Amino acid sequence: MHRTVSAAAAFAAIAISSSHAFAGIVASYDVGTGASTSTIQVDFTNGNAYQVTLRWDTAMNGFDALQAATSAITGAALAYDAYPFGNFVTGIGFDADYEYGNGDLWPIENYWHYWTEVNGQWEMAMFGASDRMLADGSKDAWVFGSSDLPQAVPAPGAAEIGVVCMWHRFRRKRR
Questions:
Q1: Which of 114, 122, 111 lies closest to 144 in space, CA to CA?
Q2: What pLDDT score was predicted for residue 154?
Q3: How far is CA 12 from the centre of its chain?
Q4: Rg (CA), the chain
Q5: What residues does 76 pair with on adjacent strands?
Q6: Closest to 55 in 3D by CA, of 134, 123, 113, 155
Q7: How many CB atoms lie within 10 A of CB 77?
Q8: Farthest-apart Cα atoms in the chain, separation
Q9: What is the structure's pLDDT at 165?
Q10: Which residues in the chain show pLDDT less than 70?
Q11: What is the DSSP string of the chain?
């Protein structure tokens, strides 16, 4: 009986911690058409994150990608200020999650930080999204109100694999 309780507790701990790892991604979308794909992640201050897989054929920059993604998703919104040198994103929304800021509340970082993935590592962009041309497989992220890295997104099925492995380990110990 003691073993069963310990194994059950371990199983519950894995299930809880695994589900917590997925808690950040509220929804994933697949939009557009084309042979190339890029991923766009949007992180809000409340911890909610949205991930969009954008399919495309014609060349586009990071801003075009965000605009295409938000215009293709019901309940998504994009606000920006247009300048001769490019566009400054001021608001992004998905369903009930919406953040707006233009960097005017010092020292609060009330603006969207633009990130790109380079060689598997997130880097805060030192250029505007209008200046970044997408490549097949590229990843962009928008994080509001913080210069923290975009949320880590576990590989699909990672939690399930961990739970199954733990279950098999438990079953082998019982025999």
A1: 111
A2: 65
A3: 26
A4: 20
A5: 94
A6: 134
A7: 15
A8: 71
A9: 44
A10: 1-23, 154-175
A11: -HHHHHHHHHHHHHHHHHHHHHTTEEEEEEEE-SSEEEEEEEE-TTS-EEEEEEEESS--BHHHHHHHHHHHSTTEEEEEEEETTEEEEEEEEETTEEEE--S-STTS--SEEEEEEETTEEEE-SS-GGGPBP-TT-EEEEEES--SPPPP-PPTTHHHHHHHHHHHHHHHHH-
**pLDDT for 16:** 37
Question: Does the pTM of the predicted model rise above 0.85?
Answer: no
Output the pLDDT for position 143: 97
Residue type at position 146? S
Write down the residue that tokens 């060689």 correspond to: 119
